[in-house]
Each structure stands twice: as structure tokens, then as C-alpha cells.
């Protein structure tokens, strides 16, 4: 069985294409690598694009792009996905940098785009704006948490790193503690998209950079119990929550535990169900604002 091992990009539809491009380039500090009419490709640096913005009628996340290991046979991977009873489509040259992709849908309607090779744009990190290391994870509200967790586990090969109670799952496809988060909600929709910053002082600088543009934080800084990352949250012009984080737990699969950190509670720290919801959400105290998880 071959599984995706890295998130590469997220695709968003937006009714405010230029506003979103301005935000992601001038405030977050991504590079506009390519613009093709009503579609824009933006990169942190490492990948050709970390975000695709497509002009449309509503603000929503419509797809995620995941990379397969370099040795994967994409034809065999398509057969593996079809064996789960899913419809797949093989696409030639679907996006800049990607020559061959297998595309299918998860149970909440997000398009999953998988590929082996993506050619980097070779762009440097931006020297203005926040300039994150990389796209880290995407979180979704889902009406059927157990069902969608099952899909990501059984079809895509993700592992559950931690549960918050029985309503919030943190799932990984590589060493990062979580790449996709699934939280129970009344509707299925993206909850937030998260970018990794370098360290705690980079978080401080990001707060100052946001303040210069009068962009208030929605929550944070916090130290999450689950994942132990330091995080802040704010909203982009489309009202979507952006998380900026550092110090996320790294999973050592050989040890079956997370790399040891002084912020841990268990020694060794392993995946578990967190019952103290407030501590799991923020070890430092304040919980999220009302309605944050909806
Ligand atoms: Fe997050």
C-alpha cells in the first residue's frame, strides 16, 4: 500500500481574488508565482505553490494537494484508491508544476489531488510580510467525524495522533503531528488553514506585522496541549481563520512516540484521547472565543 506523505497545497475559491492575493503576498509574505486570469498560484518557497486561489462565487476550500513518495507508481495508486469503491480521475498537466495526478473526493466533498512529482518554482522566501516556512495543516468542521476520520485513515493512510474528547481528531501523514484536523460541526466546511513559522520570536513579529495593518488576533498566543504548538489565529479578507504556529510535535514512528519536549505531560508523549478539553486547547489558560470551533 502506498500513501501520501506530505501536504503540498490547498485550493480556495474566492469572490475577492485580488483582495486575497494582496493579503497573502503583502501580509503573509507568500510569492505570487503565476497568475492565469482568474487563478493565482502562491508559494511559501519550497513548493511551486502552497495556495491556489480561484475566482468564484463563494469563499471556500475546495481541494487539497498531497504528494506521494517518489517511488510510487501512480497507476497502481489509482487502483488502490478505486479498490475502496471510489471514482477517480487521472489528469494530465492539471496545474503548473504537476504533470500527472489522480483526483477523487473525500466524504465531505473536498477534492483530493494526489501526485508523485511537483517541480518547485525555485523562488526565495519573501523578505517582507510574515514569510512562513510552509503550509502546515488544514482543519475542517465535519458533520460525521468518525466517518471522515475513517476515510483519511483507511483510504489515504493517515494516522490519528490525538483525539480531543470524541469530537476533534488530529491526523498525520508524515512526521508533523497533524496535517488534517477534523472537528465535529453542524456543517462541513474548512475551519482554518495553518502555516508554520520558524520560532516563538517569529510569532511575535507576525503579531506586530498584523498589528501594523490593524488585523486583530482572534485567539492566542496559546500553547496547545494537543500538538504542543504555540499558535495565533486571525482572519483573512474572506473571513477564514489563518493559524500561524511553531514548535509542533514531531512524531517518531520508530519509537511510537513524539520527540521529547519540556512542554510535554507524558514521558514519553504518545497519542491519546485528551479528556481535559481546556488544557488540550491551551496549556497557558484562556480558551477560544465563543463559537470558535463552529
Ligand atoms: Fe490548527
Explain what the structure shows.
With 294 residues, the chain is of the alpha+beta class. It folds into two domains: 6-115, 2,3-Dihydroxybiphenyl 1,2-Dioxygenase, domain 1, CATH 3.10.180.10; 134-281, 2,3-Dihydroxybiphenyl 1,2-Dioxygenase, domain 1 (Roll), CATH 3.10.180.10. 16% of the residues lie in helices and 38% in strands. It has five helices and 19 strands. It has helices at residues 17-27, 74-82, 145-154, 200-212, 277-281; strands at residues 6-14, 31-36, 39-43, 51-55, 60-67, 89-95, 98-105, 111-115, 134-142, 159-164, 168-172, 180-184, 189-196, 217-223, 230-235, 241-246, 251-252, 257-258, 273-274. A nine-stranded mixed β-sheet has the order 14-15-16-13-9-12-11-10-19. The chain has an eight-stranded mixed β-sheet with strand order 2-3-4-1-5-8-7-6, with helices on one face. The chain has a two-stranded antiparallel sheet with strand order 17-18. A hairpin with a 5-residue loop joins strand 7 (98-105) and strand 8 (111-115). The longest helix is centred in the last third of the chain and has 13 residues, at 200-212. It is globular. The mean pLDDT is 97. Fe (ii) ion (FE2) is lined by residues 137, 139, 181, 192, 194, 243.
